Amino acid sequence: MSGTKGAFWSALLLVVLLVFPASALAQVGQSRELHYATIHGKASVQFGARMYPAGNTPVYLFTLDQSARVRQLEREAYKRSHKTGATEDEASRIVGELVDTLDKIIPKLPRTAITRTNRKGFYRFERIPPATRYHVIAFGQWEDGNYIAARITPLIKEGEKLELDLRDDTPWEEQFLVK
Fold first, then answer.
1. Which residues of 121-155 are buried (b: 16+ CB within 10 A; e: fewer)?
2. In the prediction, which pLDDT does 12 show?
3. Which of 141, 140, 145, 136 shows the shortest CA–CA distance to 175?
4. Burial class (CB in 10 A: 0-12, 13-18, 19+), 59
5. End-to-end distance of the chain based on CA atoms, in angstroms?
6. 135 three-state secondary structure
7. 151 and 71 share a domain?
8. What does each C-alpha distance from 77 to 93, 150, 176 come to in angstroms?
9. Which residues contact 146 (CB under 8 A, 6 or more apart)?
10. Residue 168 belongs to what H/E stretch?
11. pLDDT at res. 175
């Protein structure tokens, strides 16, 4: 009986080796290595006519799903501040209210990662999963109040090293609208 079992297993092994090349068998149980991405850049804030590094500022990394509420609030504020007949003072008040609201909700939102800028305003996110788009938001306080500097990334590729500078004078469309 043991000879019959041995012949069976030998025949089965031969069939497996004929059907599956050795290279395929070597990969069984091994997953493909994921090449994470890096997102880095400099955050800056405008004060008067000059740009300054946004040192020691929290920088949040959100997927677009995670930042949906932020983008919704921004769209609503944008519409109200750009409506026909809105004065510059009204628009400024609306933007101020938006920034105050974001100051309360951004730190509480689920996020992919958070870091801080160094004293020169540079930030870096490493080991970021590819194949998605992200919303990168620097949010801090400056001499005259809160500021926000944000950008939405293109689709991140495996192994990509994306340089993404954040400036508080970037047009709203580039900070919050998904294209």
1. bbbebeebeeeeebbbbbbbeeeeeebbbbbbbee
2. 52
3. 136
4. buried
5. 70
6. strand
7. yes
8. 10, 16, 11
9. 99, 100, 102, 103, 139, 140
10. none
11. 72
Q: Are 24 and 53 in a shared domain?
A: no
Residue whose structure tokens are 């080991």 = 127
- 66 and 47 both lie in a single domain: yes
Tokens of 175: 């900070």
Structure confidence at residue 3 (pLDDT): 62
**Residues of the chain scoring pLDDT < 50:** 14, 16-17, 23-25
Strands (DSSP E) contained in the chain are: 37-47, 50-53, 58-63, 113-116, 122-128, 134-142, 145-152, 161-163, 166-167
Q: From CA 63, how far away is CA 26, in angstroms rounded?
A: 36
- Nearest residue to 59 via CA among 78, 73, 74, 44: 44
Predicted local distance difference test score (pLDDT) of residue 53: 95
Q: How many helices (H) and strands (E) does the chain have?
A: 5, 9
Q: Residue 47's domain spans which residues?
A: 37-176
**Model-wide pTM > 0.85:** no
Residues 135 and 52 in one domain: yes
**Residues 16, 91 within the same domain:** no
